[in-house]
Amino acid sequence: QVQLVESGGGLVQAGGSLRLSCVVSGRTSSSYAMGWFRQPPGKEREFVAAISASGGSTDSANSVEGRFTISRDNAKNTVYLQMNSAKLEDTAVYYCAARASWYSGTIYVRSNEYSYWGQGTQVTVSS
User: Fold this and answer.
1) How far apart are CA 18 and CA 9, in angstroms?
2) CA-CA distance, 92 to 105, in Å (whole number)?
3) Is 80 exceeded by the pLDDT of residue 28?
4) Is the pLDDT of residue 104 over 90?
């Protein structure tokens, strides 16, 4: 069984930075492609960023391109989401997701492609 635990959420001022972490336990994280999704208040869950099992491929949503960076440290079984230049519209519950990946370079951007989810961490951007 794979467990994901997010941390690093909180309150940040517009224009500020925050780094989210997601620790993977139960299996070696290097076999899993990872993603970050978010659910703004009153809205559906949406894709934020994804990274391949090897870490060699990444993708991010247009809304966060150039501001957010996804990375991973397989030695620490941890995936990160560095959030810079935060905007009010980034306010949401952020979820980490994982799925087994046979091909180390593949990334996944749809929520229904992921098998495992964390409990979520709240990020609130204030003006």
Assistant:
1) 7
2) 28
3) no
4) no
